[in-house]
């Protein structure tokens, strides 16, 4: 029993435009990655966390969670999927193929315990992800005379926005991700790697406030969500 969590935290946070990688920006006075790791360390049944860091990361050793016995830092890769693959390469020598793995973005510090319980529930497929039904109408774009134009409108009733964690058995996720990257497929989450090889991950409705801290305004939003939750 038990499951492992993989945390890709090797990004540079280009869209944030800050002086350091976004996983180290302060939220409520604590680095974002520290909040995410301390949140994960409260999840029941956790066997360990593999954190993928950039090769030139100098901040991680200063986090209080860096010394926690369940936290294992490794070096990530050029894209998010490469970072997750590096973490799974490490895990393959520490856990069996059928071990459940939850991949969770460093940039999602606000995920709530009831969402984790829902994803780990016995009634849910072992291949599943948290996701949010779309509230906006989604347009597929084309280009006309150098401008983005609507090519078509997608059926909103079928659109979900993928969040994390996303779960799958270690062996399956490892082979789909490795083979997908070998094919140079566009892989922006674990589900997309599994879909390439015929799997249909279950969509588990998640809370709207499991936001991904991406743009500067998200910092204030995440601080408000955390302050309200733990007040
Ligand atoms: O850029 P985006 O917000 O999609 O990144 C999602 C997560 O993937 C972040 O936690 C980021 O640190 C991580 N990442 C990574 N390795 C990369 C690029 C992104 O671990 N090469």
Automatic annotation (TrEMBL):
Site (Transition state stabilizer): 15, 22
Biological process annotations from GO: isopentenyl diphosphate biosynthetic process, methylerythritol 4-phosphate pathway
Catalysis: reaction(s): 2-C-methyl-D-erythritol 4-phosphate + CTP + H(+) = 4-CDP-2-C-methyl-D-erythritol + diphosphate
EC number: 2.7.7.60
UniProt pathway: Isoprenoid biosynthesis; isopentenyl diphosphate biosynthesis via DXP pathway; isopentenyl diphosphate from 1-deoxy-D-xylulose 5-phosphate: step 2/6
Name of a matching Pfam family: IspD
UniProt record similarity statement: Belongs to the IspD/TarI cytidylyltransferase family. IspD subfamily.
Task of the protein: Catalyzes the formation of 4-diphosphocytidyl-2-C-methyl-D-erythritol from CTP and 2-C-methyl-D-erythritol 4-phosphate (MEP).
Protein name: 2-C-methyl-D-erythritol 4-phosphate cytidylyltransferase
Organism in which the protein naturally occurs: Microbulbifer marinus
């Amino acid at each position: 029993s038990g499951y492992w969590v993989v945390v890709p935290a090797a990004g540079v946070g280009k869209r944030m435009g800050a002086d350091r990688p976004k996983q180290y920006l302060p939220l409520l006075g604590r680095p974002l990655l520290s909040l995410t790791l301390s949140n994960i360390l409260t999840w029941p049944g956790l066997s360990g966390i593999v954190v993928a860091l950039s090769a030139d990361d100098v901040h991680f050793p200063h986090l209080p969670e860096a010394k926690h016995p369940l936290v294992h830092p490794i070096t990530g890769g050029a894209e998010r999927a490469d970072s997750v693959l590096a973490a799974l390469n490490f895990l393959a020598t520490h856990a069996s193929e059928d071990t459940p793995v939850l991949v969770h973005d460093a940039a999602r510090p606000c995920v709530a315990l009831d969402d984790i319980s829902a994803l780990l529930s016995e009634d849910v497929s072992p291949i599943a992800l948290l996701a949010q039904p779309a509230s906006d109408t989604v347009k597929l774009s084309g280009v006309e005379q150098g401008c983005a134009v609507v090519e078509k409108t997608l059926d909103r009733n079928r659109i979900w926005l993928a969040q994390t964690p996303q779960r799958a058995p270690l062996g399956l996720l490892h082979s789909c991700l490795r083979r997908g990257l070998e094919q140079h497929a566009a892989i922006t989450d674990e589900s997309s790697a599994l879909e390439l090889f015929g799997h249909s991950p279950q969509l588990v409705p998640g809370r709207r406030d499991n936001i991904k801290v991406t743009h500067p305004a998200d910092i204030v939003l995440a601080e408000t969500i955390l302050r309200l939750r733990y007040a």
